[in-house]
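Here is the promised in-class demo. Please do not try to memorize the tokens; focus on the logic of going from shape to residues.
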């Protein structure tokens, strides 16, 4: 069955950057959008500027709130066909003196544990739906090409890449699509607190890709279908180098093992 374009989309982490852009674009395209985040004033602004968008406020690192909120949202919006796990944090972590325990636990809780809890909530619910549904995880080029300043962040995104890949194999016989978006360095608030520090250490660091340019490409790729299904992974620029190298190396291994769903 051909997957319809995502029509009713829950975006977890839509108060800024990539999630905010996706929410506004999908709303402008006439799709039904539900946006979440911690910052109430940003959610209120989104609602005011995009009439019809529904918003919910919760912190994804509170596992109980995440599970309860997502179940509640799905109960109140039974037509949701796509959930995007956008929320993520990162920082420059130079071991040992530049890293406190909080940096480790908050990145792992936000970037790894929350997507896993979300999947645990979503999969049984989506399995009861006969039409195609989509669970979208956001990793990073750094999950494929780990670089020196981001040991914790790169590891969290590599973990989610592996998790998404294995989850896709587990739901292969269902209409659930597991999609991984792999952004390169994008100009958002994401690293606003760390950009100055990065440029001091790496004065010749790559410039971030403008958000509009990145989103135009990514939203187009989200509409692409192969054999009626969305792309398994969507990457851009620097991230594509790592993604393509990984697929080039691992597809023959999965073929040999007979795992076409990976
Ligand atoms: N920008 C980049 O260079 C880049 C590169 C590769 C991958 N990524 C990934 O892309 C995703 C989006 O990043 P972005 O660039 O758009 O950054 P951003 O502008 O900082 O947006 C992050 C979003 O995540 C939400 N969030 C963070 N922690 C949360 C929590 N504990 N509970 C609920 N929501 C939380 C934020 O909402 P509140 O603060 O309101 O909670 C915000 O909506 C992230 O997963 C990031 O790792 C970004």
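The designed amino acids, position by position:
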């Amino acid at each position: 069955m051909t997957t319809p374009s995502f029509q009713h989309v829950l975006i977890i982490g839509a108060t800024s950057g990539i999630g905010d852009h996706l929410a506004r674009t999908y709303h402008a395209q006439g799709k039904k959008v539900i946006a979440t985040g911690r910052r109430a004033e940003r959610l209120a602004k989104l609602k005011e500027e995009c009439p019809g968008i529904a918003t919910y406020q919760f912190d994804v690192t509170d596992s109980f709130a995440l599970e309860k909120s997502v179940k509640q949202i799905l109960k109140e919006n039974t037509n949701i066909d796509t959930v995007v796990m956008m929320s993520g944090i990162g920082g420059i972590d130079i071991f040992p003196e530049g890293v406190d325990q909080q940096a480790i636990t908050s990145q792992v809780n936000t970037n790894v544990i929350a997507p896993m809890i979300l999947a645990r909530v979503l999969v049984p619910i989506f399995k009861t739906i006969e039409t195609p549904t989509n669970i979208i995880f956001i990793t990073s080029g750094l999950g494929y090409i780990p670089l020196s300043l981001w040991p914790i962040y790169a590891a969290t995104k590599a973990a989610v890449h592996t998790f998404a890949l294995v989850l896709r194999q587990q739901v292969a016989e269902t209409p659930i699509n597991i999609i991984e978006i792999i952004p390169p360095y994008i100009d958002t608030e994401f690293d606003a607190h760390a950009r100055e520090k990065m440029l001091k250490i790496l004065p010749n660091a790559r410039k971030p890709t403008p958000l509009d340019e990145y989103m135009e490409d990514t939203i187009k790729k989200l509409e692409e279908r192969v054999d009626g299904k969305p792309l398994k992974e969507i990457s851009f620029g620097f991230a594509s180098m790592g993604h393509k190298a990984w697929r080039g190396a691992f597809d023959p291994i999965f073929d040999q093992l007979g795992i076409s769903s990976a």
